[in-house]
Amino acid sequence: MQSIKAAVCRTFGQPLVIEDIQIAPPGMGEVEVTLGAVAICHSDITYASGAWGGFLPAVYGHEAAGVITATGDEVGPFKIGDPVVVTLIRSCGSCPSCASGKPTICETPYDALKGPLRTADGGPLEQSMACGAFAEKVVVSHRQIVKIPQDMPKDVASLLSCGVITGVGAAVNAAGLRAGQDVVVIGAGGVGLNAIQGARIAGARRIVAVDMTEEKLDIAREFGATDGVLGSQKEPWKAAYKALGGRGADAVLITVGAIPAYDQAPRYLGPGGKAIMIGMPHSGDFSSYEPVILAALGQGLIGSKMGDVVIQRDIPWMIDLYEQGRLKLDELISGRWSLDQINEAIEDTKTGAAKRNVILFNQG
């Protein structure tokens, strides 16, 4: 095993600790990726707060990009020197979900405590979300990675690992938007902005962004929202109805984990519409609906994990859109930080003002 630096969570709700840890070489079907960048997702922050439980100590982080520096046997087309994005989607490829084209809900369990990470003294260390990318290197399944262009900046590429595919995928895959349909996106953060981009790419007629500040609504318009509604007003769905010409939306994309957003989401829907549940509330939180209305109007509630993507299909497509100038990625980065500054970057992310903060590693 080799020694690398990582940001370790040792106590829920406390700052991460930069320390040396051990990482095993890649085994069968695995690759070692030396990271160039990892973005900070709200899921990492929620895990580190203890809201979803889990084992400690742990290494979080799951939106990463870097270069393959070692491989095990049987890693498909990948080789040392390939630049790649690293995702948390560790799919087996053969369970019923994977075989039916739904790798994001792979049914084969992965024991993160039996992964490649150990503390400096050899103790257990959780490789959270099968990734553990708040570290200089990761060892992951070759099914979790996708090759990227040699000249694509790693900070930009890292965004494709979660926030972008989750938002764009929710609009295109989970909602199945068609040209001319109307969409409401609740939340204009990192995932919300990408849901807006996905709706725009899919050809939505109107895209109404709902957020708590005018500043966030202005940013949403830059990414493709046609209208903005302040969620702080008494009945924001009425303003959305007006923006849509007096009708409800064909799809509502809930990109935040706030329970009031979940409670209100069906009110934005038109007959036959569906609410796509993307944001992740804390464990134990509950939302309530009046089911007779959903039944009478033929409406639906659909969960979407990671945008229902197939990374080997969807990430190359999104890279192509980026290279054409049709998908904004550079504009999503709010700040760039070093690993030693990760706690500052997390606090900045918690303010809600940042789209995505990215940790950069020195690969030289």
Short key terms for the protein model shown above:
alpha/beta; Quinone Oxidoreductase, Chain A, domain 1; 6-stranded parallel sheet; 11 helices; 18 strands
Question: Can you tell me about this structure?
Answer:
Strand 1 and strand 2 (17-23) form a beta hairpin. With 364 residues, this protein is an alpha/beta fold. The protein contains 11 helices and 18 strands. It has 2 domains: 2-161 and 328-360, Quinone Oxidoreductase, Chain A, domain 1; 174-305, NAD(P)-binding Rossmann-like Domain (Rossmann fold, 3-Layer(aba) Sandwich), CATH 3.40.50. The radius of gyration is 20 Å and the shape is globular. The strands form 4 sheets. Strands 3, 5, 6, 9, 10, 17 and 18 form a 7-stranded mixed beta sheet that branches. Strands 13-12-11-14-15-16 form a 6-stranded parallel beta sheet, with helices on both faces. It has a 3-stranded antiparallel beta sheet with strand order 1-2-7, with no helix packed on it. The model has no long low-confidence stretch (mean pLDDT 96).
- Which structural class best describes the helix and strand composition? alpha/beta
Name the CATH homologous superfamily of the largest domain.
Medium-chain alcohol dehydrogenases, catalytic domain
Low-confidence stretches are: none
Let me know the largest β-sheet: 7 strands, mixed
Oligomer: single chain
CATH topology of the largest domain: Quinone Oxidoreductase, Chain A, domain 1
Main CATH class of the largest domain: Alpha Beta
How much is the radius of gyration in Å? 20 Å
Count of spatially separate domains: 2
Number of strands: 18
Per CATH, which architecture of the largest domain?
Alpha-Beta Complex
Strand content: 25-35%
Overall body shape: globular
Mean pLDDT reading: 96
Terminal residue distance: 21 Å
**Helical percentage:** 25-40%
Continuous helix count: 11
